[in-house]
Every structure is written in C-alpha cells, then in structure tokens.
Amino acid sequence: MLEPEDHTLRLLREFREEFRRFSTNTGRSFERVQERLHSMQKAMLGESVLGRYATAEFEERLSALERRVATLEGRS
After folding, report:
1. Domain span at residue 42?
2. 43 with 36: CB under 8 angstroms?
3. pLDDT digits (tens, 9 = 90+) for 1-38
4. What contacts 10, CB < 8 A, 6 or more positions away?
5. Residues 18/10, Cβ–Cβ less than 8 Å
C-alpha cells in the first residue's frame, strides 16, 4: 500500500495535469469564441458600410431630382 504522502503527491500531480488540460481546452474555446465574435463584427460593419453607401447614393439621386424640380419651378 502507498504511503499517505506518496498518495497525496500523486493526486496533486494528477490535479496539476488535469488543470493544465482544462486550461488549454478553455483557452482554445475562448479563442474560437473570440474569432466568431470578430467575424460577426466584421460582417455587421460590412453591412453597415454597404447600407451607408446605398443611402448616400439614394440621397445624391434625390438631391439631383430636387434640383431639377427647383429649376423647372423657376422657369414657370
């Protein structure tokens, strides 16, 4: 039978190894979550930029129409 001191040291070594594995797995999982969050942020930013671009184009076209109407009204 193992001495209590030997048994305690063995258990402490097992705990240390388990903690290392847990820490490594947790770190990997956290990195994956960060990558997914980053890709979602990039996608949202891309949609936002596209929306702003489309809105700006619409505003330009609307302004051009308003200028034409103003010009036509001025002729009357």
Report:
1. 1-76
2. no
3. 557 677 888 899 999 999 999 988 898 999 999 999 99
4. 2
5. no
Could you give the CA distance from residue 37 to residue 43 in angstroms, rounded to a whole number?
Answer: 10
What span, in angstroms and rounded, lies between the C-alpha atoms of 54 and 21? 49
Secondary structure, 3-state, 3-65: CHHHHHHHHHHHHHHHHHHHHHHHHHHHHHHHHHHHHHHHHHHHHHHHHHHHHHHHHHHHHHH
Q: What is the mean pLDDT of the chain?
A: 86
Number of domains in the chain: 1
Each residue of 35-74: pLDDT tens digit? 999 988 888 777 777 777 778 888 888 999 999 999 888 8
Distance CA 3, CA 1 (A): 6
